[in-house]
Amino acid sequence: MKLFVTGGGGFLGYAIVCQLNAIGHEIATYSRQSYTALKQLGVSQNLGDLSDFNALKHAMDGCEAVFHVAAKTGTWGKYKDFYTTNVQGTKNVILACRELEIRNLIFTSSASVVFHGKNSEGHNESLPYPKKYNAFYPKTKAVAEQLVITANDDHLKTVCIRPHLIWGPGDPYFLPRLAERSKKGKLRLLGHPTNLVDCTYIDNAASAHILALKQLLHNPIQVEGKTYFISQDDPIPIAEFINKMLASADLPPVSNYVSPKVAYLAGWFLEWFYRTFRISTEPLITPFLAQQLSSSHWYNISASKHDFGYEVGVSIEEGMERLRKWVLKTSNI
């Protein structure tokens, strides 16, 4: 089966490509740059931007299903950039699917699309979208998710997957930022250290996407037009998770504490200051980040386990050991 993966060279996209390649599928990817790792797998790489519909459609031609993983992530940047990639890019993927008569689309969403800025413990997918977002990433991903859900019909079957806090070997985001701030002495804990959060090991996140496609192909009525939380199914205190990540890079645990209210106010001021004076670098803290780090947010993943057989193949403990070995081997942190 020929499958298409947007963002196939990224952290999650590459993990999905590797698992698809291991079970014998033909794969084409679409990214803004080429990747040596994909070339070594023998993957067909197509270069382009999601905003370029013609290039995207040409790359997708001949594929039978699409994993739309590519996105602009982060807590800082221009709204236009987030919208162009996350919303317009998703519109282009859907339109290309329709014009090429591709019948299956798996969309990588995020649990942050339903983050209300306060504790969220054990909710399922019935949790509504918030009326207001404190960051452009979850705002635009929520719009994109709704586009994918409403696109589901007799001609195009769609599923949305909401991983939360993906981590593991190859992580280019979370661990490197933690390590950088730790080394500079700028890392602080916010809120109560026992606040629980969900996380998702990279291989588990990739597996969920492939299991969803399998169900979409063989029993679409079970999953089509739906969105699903996935995680380790093992909420962990945020302080413990951060310190486990730091330990994997042989860095000391963080114990310094900042009041959530102080952090939120500092984030609000820095965000105002940076936008007012058009400073492009990312602030140390933003209101969204302050809320994320100072609240409990974990979700019920019963639906993904029931509807398409998602299971946690790699535990937090095993994942941390794999991460530690990767850091030692690559010396990337």
Written description of the protein model:
The chain has 333 residues and is an alpha/beta fold. It has a single domain, classed as Rossmann fold. 44% of the residues lie in helices and 16% in strands. The chain is built from twelve helices and 15 strands. The mean pLDDT is 94.
Could you provide a short overview of the structure?
It is globular, with a radius of gyration of 19 Å. By secondary structure, it is of the alpha/beta class.
* Spatial strand order of the main sheet: 3-2-1-4-5-7-12
**What is the CA-based Rg, rounded?**
19 Å
> How many separate domains?
1
Give the overall silhouette. Answer: globular
Number of strands: 15
- Beta percentage is 15-25%
* CATH superfamily heading: NAD(P)-binding Rossmann-like Domain
Q: Please identify the top-level CATH class.
A: Alpha Beta
Major sheet: 7 strands, parallel
CATH topology: Rossmann fold
Mean pLDDT, nearest integer? Answer: 94
* SSE class: alpha/beta
Straight-line distance between termini: 37 Å
Q: What is the ordering of alpha helices and beta strands? A: EHEHEHEHEEHEEHEEEHEEHEHHEHH
Question: Can you name the CATH architecture?
Answer: 3-Layer(aba) Sandwich
User: Which runs of at least 5 residues are low in confidence (pLDDT < 50)?
Assistant: none
Number of helices, counting only DSSP H or I runs of 4 residues or more: 12
Helix content: 40-55%
